[in-house]
Write a structure and sequence with these properties.
6-stranded parallel β-sheet, binds magnesium ion, binds 3-methylbut-3-enyl trihydrogen diphosphate, Undecaprenyl pyrophosphate synthetase, single chain, alpha/beta
Length: 242
């Protein structure tokens, strides 16, 4: 292996994909794939803490995932509920701060209440920021930002005085990821080569790592491989390397 080119990523985003196919290949119902996927969430959170990764963003449920059969959606909601119930204490103890991206208010009310509780219980933590994207869609996030900016400009005309006054930084402050640095590394499991409406603005210069491993097989060792590959990449940001 050559010389490391980048220090460890500051912000890692993951599209956790392939639970269904993993289950199918093992002859299990899809629900078993989702359940095993939750174990990997725990493992990757722990691995992020061990490796001192400051920010981890997990895509758990997209706006488009509502198209799935009601039975599967209810399995996913039950697992989320169970995760919050089981993990709340551990997250507090581990120093993890939970933040939600997307529209969690449209999730079943008891889950939304639990989410708010865990977000507030972990708000003082700072070892790892764990963002979970729930009922998230990047295009609607961007449209929401535009709408909020238009509203603000109506009430406060000095806020946007011309195209150049709306900087990228100002615009980004209206996104769900407000205040966060962009992801350095995007990991997608299960071999699919698409973004599926995830962080379209924020991933502009992320290094993309796609593995054929299904999410239930994405262990801490697989995570280490992704990080090691990231560290070998040339990041140019449009510039030339000297
Ligand atoms: C990822 O696994 C979990 C969610 C999208 C909620 P999938 O359920 O998409 O699994 P595949 O892609 O059908 O195998
Ligand atoms: C992306 O996976 C969404 C999440 C991982 C939550 P999907 O399985 O929904 O993506 P597509 O439908 O294959 O693009
Ligand atoms: Mg999928």
């Amino acid at each position: 292996m050559g010389r490391t080119k980048n220090s460890k990523p500051n912000h890692i985003a993951i599209i956790m994909d392939g639970n269904g196919r993993w289950a199918q290949e093992h002859g299990f119902p899809r629900a078993v794939g989702h359940k095993t996927g939750v174990e990997r969430v725990r493992e990757i959170v722990r691995a992020s803490l061990d490796r001192e990764i400051p920010i981890l963003t997990l895509y758990a449920f997209s706006q488009e995932n509502w198209k799935r059969p009601a039975e599967e959606i209810s399995v996913l909601m039950r697992l989320l509920d169970y995760f919050l119930e089981e993990e709340a204490k551990t997250l507090v103890e581990q120093g993890v701060k939970l933040r939600i991206l997307g529209h969690p208010e449209a999730l079943p009310a008891p889950i939304y209440e639990k989410l708010k509780k865990v977000v507030s219980a972990t708000s003082g933590n700072s070892r790892l920021l764990l963002n979970i994207a729930l009922n998230y869609g990047s295009r609607s996030e961007i449209l929401g930002a535009i709408y909020a900016i238009v509203e603000k400009a109506k009430n406060e005309p000095s806020f946007v005085t011309g195209p150049e006054s709306l900087t990228e930084e100002k615009f980004a402050s209206f996104l769900d990821t407000q205040g966060l640095p962009d992801p350095d590394l995007l990991i997608r499991t299960s071999g699919e080569m698409r973004l599926s409406n995830f962080l379209l603005w924020q991933l502009s210069y992320a290094e993309i790592y796609i593995t054929k491993k299904y999410w239930p097989d994405f262990t801490a060792d697989e995570y280490a491989l992704a990080i090691a590959e990231y560290q070998m990449r040339d990041r140019r940001f449009g510039d030339v390397l000297v």
